[in-house]
Amino acid sequence: MKQEPSKDLGMFGPALARSRENVVTSALPFLVLSVAAAFLFGISWVALLGGVVLSVLDLVIPALLVFASWSLPKRLADLDTAGPANTVLNLVSAVLVELARLGVVVFLSAQLLDAAWLGLGFHIRTMVIAVVMFGVAALVASSPSDQGDARPGGAASYLRGSLGFGRNILLDMGLTLLLVWSPWLAFVTVPVGAVWHTLLTSKRSR
Questions:
Q1: What is the pLDDT of residue 82?
Q2: Where are the alpha helices (DSSP H) in the chain?
């Protein structure tokens, strides 16, 4: 039987390749660090769930801030003030998320193993979004067998993305570990975490 040639995915090819790369670069470091954490500390499902809750708050808090301020939507819509307004929004929401991290650590009376799983749980959202986006891109673009133009970015791109995502997980583990050591270290974790996540958010939005 004659095999039909692969279809040209056009504009969907790069999107499909990018979404597939995002799945790999988020799942690989997450799985490696999860196995390492399970081997060294055991598994804490409660702490993992606490990290997921923090991740959800990271999505919800910016929306609540926009609705809470009558002037913010106007500033975000104005091209002259959208950049600074977004920066302020990201910074304030990141500060609130870091304070929520402190609250979760205190509420759970978190221990060393909890710090690792809280940090991992915070990044489950990224993996879920990556998988969903890949599924949507694959459905819109073509059937899985017709991915002629969906070329990945190469080994270097996968490695760079994996190391970047792994670094972000390790940072969240470290911030949580400092709070486990002493809640008073929130004076360090809140500004450091807020600035770091604000810079990441600003980088993604460009």
A1: 58
A2: 12-41, 45-68, 72-77, 82-108, 112-121, 124-141, 155-181, 186-205
